[in-house]
């Protein structure tokens, strides 16, 4: 992405309803996973791949020792300066760690940026310890494709069976839980994307052109956050949604 976008995304990750709601959904589900797995968070090793401007590494740090990787060198330097985090410049398709290094490997909205997404998943599995967990999120449905995906350098959006296929290509682990999410807001977002594509509004925005620019902090931002955040209760009960704007997927490696 353009370097100015990372500066914009630094603020978005901390103020925009979608980022904050996703953070709550992810954090609450990790709490559930670790509780069920009886993990001692004082010793858990976490790899956060594609940390961007750093917010995901900040909230993951409450669960254990986080190692952060980001592909874009400028973003590494920018995020490190802003957050004080040590961020490694590296690629998900060539993770600079040996096999069996981490208890939890996370990639939140990352593999859609990678042309060889199967290699990305294989690398995540490689550095994962036996009985370790991979937790990813990805954008869903090509029917939602818009200028937002173009400027974020996405290769694709996914359907759930496509994500499952990436992980089940070898008999080396098992699915824990998978679901679409951001379901309650799917209809208005779908309509927004279709109108945006028709009118090419994304290309006319002053900033990055992402959909995130369309909603600024305020009452509407709070309403949308609360609607999306409601889904946490369902996901923590392992209730899968049949559709949504995004996908959540967790997988456990066999010994």
From TrEMBL:
Gene3D superfamilies: Vaccinia Virus protein VP39
A molecular function GO annotation: methyltransferase activity
Pfam families linked to this entry: Methyltransf_11
GO biological process, one term: methylation
Alphabetically ordered keywords of this record: Methyltransferase, Transferase
Keyword field contains Methyltransferase: yes
Coiled coil: none
Domain of life, source organism: Bacteria
Domain Methyltransferase type: 47-136
Protein name, per record: Class I SAM-dependent methyltransferase
Organism of derivation: Flavobacterium buctense
């Amino acid at each position: 992405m353009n370097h100015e976008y990372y500066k914009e995304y630094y603020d978005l990750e901390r103020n925009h309803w979608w980022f904050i709601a996703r953070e709550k959904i992810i954090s609450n589900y990790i709490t559930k996973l670790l509780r069920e797995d009886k993990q001692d968070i004082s010793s858990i090793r976490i790899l956060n791949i594609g940390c961007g401007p750093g917010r995901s590494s900040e909230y993951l740090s409450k669960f254990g020792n986080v190692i952060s990787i980001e592909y874009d060198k400028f973003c590494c330097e920018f995020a490190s300066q802003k957050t004080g985090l040590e961020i490694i410049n590296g690629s998900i398709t060539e993770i600079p760690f040996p096999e069996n290094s981490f208890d939890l490997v996370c990639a939140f909205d990352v593999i859609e940026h990678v042309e060889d997404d199967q290699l990305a998943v294989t690398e995540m599995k490689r550095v994962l310890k036996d009985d370790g967990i991979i937790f990813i999120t990805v954008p869903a449905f090509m029917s939602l494709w818009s200028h937002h995906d173009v400027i974020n350098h996405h290769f694709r959006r996914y359907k759930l069976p496509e994500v499952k296929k990436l992980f089940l290509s070898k008999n080396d682990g098992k699915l824990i839980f998978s679901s679409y999410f951001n379901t309650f807001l799917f209809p208005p977002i779908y309509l927004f994307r279709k109108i945006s594509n028709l009118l090419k509004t994304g290309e006319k925005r002053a900033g990055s052109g992402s959909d995130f620019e369309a909603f600024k902090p305020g009452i509407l931002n709070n309403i949308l956050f609360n609607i999306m955040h409601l889904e946490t209760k369902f996901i923590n009960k392992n209730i899968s949604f049949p559709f949504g704007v995004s996908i959540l997927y967790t997988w456990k490696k066999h010994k």
